[in-house]
Amino acid sequence: MTGWNRGIAPWALGLWVVAGCGDDVGTTDTTGEVSASGGETTSTTTSGEPTTGVPTTTTGAPTTSTSEATTTTTTDTTTTSTSEATTTTGTTEPDTTSTSTTDPGLCGNGAVDDGEVCDDGVNDGAYDGCQPGCGALGPFCGDGEQNGPEGCDDGNEVDDDACNNDCAPATCGDGELQRGEECDDGNMDETDDCLATCKSASCGDGSVQAGVEACDDGNDLDTDACLNACKVAVCGDSIVQEGVEACDDGDDDDTDACVAGCKEAACGDGHVQAGVETCDDGNDVDNDGCSNACVPPPVDVLFTSAARRSRTGPARRSATRPTATVTSCRARSR
Fold first, then answer.
1. Beta bridge partners of 258
2. How far apart are CA 14 and CA 55, in angstroms?
3. Can you tell me whether residue 313 is helix, strand or coil?
4. Which residue did the predictor score with more confidence, 329 or 193?
5. What is the pLDDT of residues 3-23, one digit of tens each?
6. CA–CA separation, 113 vs 115, rounded Å?
7. Distance of CA 164 to the CA centre of its chain
8. Where is the composition biased (Low complexity) (predicted)?
9. Comparing 98 with 112, which gets the higher pLDDT?
10. Model pLDDT for residues 260-281, shown as the tens digit of each residue
11. Mean pLDDT highest for which of 77-81, 115-119, 214-218?
């Protein structure tokens, strides 16, 4: 067996060398760029020159042949990728908007259409309405310019200045308290606490304030029917009402100079005036118990009167006795 190996070895070695000379061994260079975003990939592959093997020389001894194959692989893969994702969480409502095509808006139809600022219909162009053409508002109270029926227009919202918010000049009775006014209740009632002249009601202003004054004649005369306290003059108020009362002492004493009814005390009024009258029977009979001079009559007059009034019975006897006595006295005196 060893002899057979020695006889075949040179042949086999030569065959192997020939087979190695027939193969080209190349160098492969692969270049690529990769970017990790799952996008574009660029790859470049470069193949070099074939490699030539060197034949081995056989000199009858076993020869070792070396073949080198160099392979270089470079991978450079560049990938550029841009991805934006937007996530919206919420409730999606179905679109129920219907789109219809209509004719362009017409100024004056009373509806504010596209391109119009306002539309007052037939009132376009009138005061406090929409201007013709529906492109802007017309003059109105508060725009700072006096127009139409305005008495003034100061363009502000201050209601107690010279021009009210309704574009009317401030006046007494407009309900707004202005400079120079004591009050302004917005009415013409002269019997409440604010007069139509925007003055506070008071006694002597000539207007009877309901529930407060009994009268108000607007003067300072205290002897007429309405006193200066705006009370009706009456007997006993201590003020003599001219042409009505003769006196007024303000009391209920009927024995002084001024009796009930605001009359001066007099004989015959039925009231005995203290220190002045002895009696006062209030009649015109002069031979009764009280003469018309409000003094008792003389004694003989009393007796004579009594006799005349009594003609029968004990009264007659009692009446004649004084008369007889008087007669006898006269006789004795003679």
1. 264
2. 10
3. helix
4. 193
5. 434 444 444 444 433 344 444
6. 6
7. 16
8. 28-102
9. 112
10. 999 999 999 999 999 999 999 9
11. 214-218
User: CB of 170 within 8 A of CB of 163?
Assistant: yes
Helix, strand, or coil here: 263?
strand
Distance CA 217, CA 228 (A): 9
Can you tell me which residue has the tokens 């190349």?
26
Taking only Cα atoms into account, the Rg of the chain, rounded to an integer number of angstroms, comes to 73
Distance CA 56, CA 50 (A): 19
Give 226's strand partners. Answer: 232
Check if the beta carbon of residue 70 is closer than 8 Å to that of residue 76: no
Q: What's the order of all strands across the beta sheet hosting 42-51?
A: 42-51, 25-33, 72-73
Nearest CA to 209 out of 241, 182, 231 is that of 231
Q: Cβ–Cβ contacts within 10 Å for residue 130, how many?
A: 24
DSSP 242: T
The burial class, CB within 10 Å (0-12 / 13-18 / 19+), for 146 is: middle
CA distance 169 to 165: 9
Per-residue three-class SS string for 129-179? CECCCCCCECCCCCCCCCCCCCCCCCCCCCCCCCECCCCCECCCCCCCCCC
Burial 211-225 (b: 16+ CB within 10 A, else e): eebeebeeeeeeebe
